[in-house]
Write a structure and sequence with these properties.
By secondary structure, this protein is an alpha/beta fold. The protein has 2 domains: 174 residues, Aspartate Aminotransferase, domain 1; 264 residues, Type I PLP-dependent aspartate aminotransferase-like (Major domain) (Aspartate Aminotransferase, domain 2, 3-Layer(aba) Sandwich), CATH 3.40.640. It contains 15 helices and 14 strands. The strands form 3 sheets. A 7-stranded mixed beta sheet has the order 4-10-9-8-7-5-6, sandwiched between helices. Strands 1-2-3-13 form a 4-stranded mixed beta sheet. Strands 11-12-14 form a 3-stranded antiparallel beta sheet, with helices on one face. Helix 9 links the parallel strand 8 and strand 9. Helix 7 runs parallel beside helix 8 and helix 12 packs parallel to helix 15. 45% of the residues are buried.
Length: 447
Amino acid sequence: MSNQSKYALSEKNMAIAKEIFPEGKLSSADMKKVPLFYAKAKGSKVYDIDGNEYIDYFLGNGPLILGHCHDEVVSAIKEQAEKGINFGGHSEISLKFAQKICDSVKSIERMRYTSTGTEATYYAIRIARAYTKRDYILRFEGAYHGHHNLALMSSKMKHASIDLLKKYPIPDTRPYVDSAGIPNDEADKVFIAPFNNIERLEEILEKHGDKIACVMVEPVQRYIEPKDDFLKKVRELTKKYGILMILMFFDEIVTGFRLAPGGAQQYYGVDADITALGKITGGGFPHGVIGGPKEIMDKVFDPTSDQYVFHAGTFSGNAIACAAGYTQVSVLERDDLYERLHYLGKKIREGIREVLNKTGLPYRVYGVGPMWHFSFIDKDIIDYRSSLFANKSLADKIVTKMYDKGVLCSLGRNYISAVHSDEDIDKTIEIFEESVKETLREEKKNV
């Protein structure tokens, strides 16, 4: 069967979509290798409108840690929908979920709901600036904190090349702006540091620490792990220089409730001052959380204070999102699924290594807990710039072949759910090996 006929209905719909959506996409986050239109999903599988089945490692871009349409989550959504969807005020489920979040993430004593992770990181910066009465922030190059203006500072270098690396060399601290429509002067209040480089971070803090409101950290930056107690050292430096630290939970928006019940803070033994949560907390619905110690949160949300932060949202505490998130987190904890999640992540990473060992090519495999990624590169990836030297073209060809064989994954970070089976992982590794072999044969023919 040709690829054209295999995706015929999706391709027909995409032609229509391109008349409505720029690029035919719902958002810039859509990085899929073929223009799929989904029909349904259950557990670890999704099905497109042409009837093709896929083992899914996107999981709705990360929220569905119990897989698609988990029975208890669906039941909770239906039950809440009959009671009410969005009240614009407190509900029993929004309170129950808030209590669970505060019990799970020990650094959160007070919190507010938002509608997205991007919104949560946006308010995190505003809170930090209000509380410290400082205007500058420091973030790490290549981290993703959403898509508001300050989040799109040095998140992804456009048309990355060696020439651009020379144009923006470390230790240059001025960010490059990732999107049109953002005034360049917004970069004047942002410092950039390389992830996993504690020496460079200390240089910046020693020189500019008295005007920096917060250090924004994605605990696992995309797929890059923190090395040599990096997070603990960042925590020490922020205390040394009196800076309010933010461990974002997409940024524990991604790692929150994924690595452990208390997220990356529990997993790595580091407490943050401000925490942003999302993805898993919405159970597949738009949702976010911003929280921290009571002395910070009570101060900035006191209308009589000169540090008062205005926060509003029509959908903050949306009952359906809270019901889905509360149920999902409760099932994770009740059934103690974290050991299972870490086991599956380790299994797929080891399987990928075994396959790539046979190729003789330089490679690295990354991932923490139920996440995985592979790169063709001859040195460790420790920060954003070192990742630019990977052979992404070769990896892209392999991933594209995996789509055709029934596995949905990305060139970036991939997610595993608690309902992925050992058979799913075994089949994925088998398909990965087939795709690698076919790609390398084709590459050899083209030489």
